[in-house]
Design a protein that fits this description.
Number of strands: 7
Shape: globular
Number of helices: 0
Order of helices and strands: EEEEEEE
Structural class: mainly beta
Distance between the termini: 15 Å
Helix content: under 10%
Length: 80
């Protein structure tokens, strides 16, 4: 499910998502992690790492703030 700024609500906080950034120099970059907060100015996002031994995403760092101007798209993921 692709989420737009207008449709992103607090119910998504705590869910595993893919955060895709705006295109820079012809490339798009995306990170997988947990949505930790949604504000008028942007989102708080905690990056995850994939543990192949457990076959799932694991917490990787504390949350960082990303302003809406940098975010191209947010996609909901299954908890894998």
């Amino acid at each position: 499910m692709n989420l737009q700024r207008e449709s992103l609500s607090q119910e998504w906080v705590g869910r595993l998502v893919e955060l895709e950034f705006i295109e820079v120099a012809g490339e798009r970059h995306a990170l997988v992690g947990w949505l930790r907060g949604v504000t008028e100015r942007g989102v708080y996002f905690a990056r995850a790492f994939y543990c192949s031994a457990l076959n799932k995403y694991m917490p990787g760092e504390t949350a960082s703030f990303y302003p809406w101007g940098l975010v191209a798209e947010i996609r909901g993921l299954s908890r894998g």
